[in-house]
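Hi R.,

Here's the chain you asked about this morning:
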Amino acid sequence: MNKIAIAALLALTLVLGACGSGSSTNNGNINGNWTAQLTDTHNDPVFALTTTFTQMSGSAVSVTNLTFTTSTPCFVSGESGTGSFILSGNFNGNVTGAFQLTITSGNPSGDTLTLQGTAKSNVITGTWTLTGLHSGCSGKGNFTLNKM
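And here is the predicted structure, written out as tokens:
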């Protein structure tokens, strides 16, 4: 009787282990190309950008291919970004966690855009603040990042 119970338990374990083992395009990180829409406190469009995120070790995120797709005197060329993502779950391929991105202007320098929000699956939402040395390079609002 014990052998039958052990065999049944082993079979059940194998069947349940196979559940959820399918592949997912979102495997616990935020790797990929993203597009962002930033609006002011009145929900009017302010900035749009595209970038590529790559999850590094720990919470660090590599930010590459950063391009503002709207014309702005704050970010003309040579911008750089640093990011972090703290994964809080990977349930059925749905990534969730806290997200932060800081973009510093290249030329002209002295302007900083900070985004803080929450990732859920292929969307990151939150708030942004812009502080800067140049005219018109300050403000705040909301943003949405979508994975392309």
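One quick note: Residues 1-27 have pLDDT under 50 and may be disordered.

Cheers,
M.
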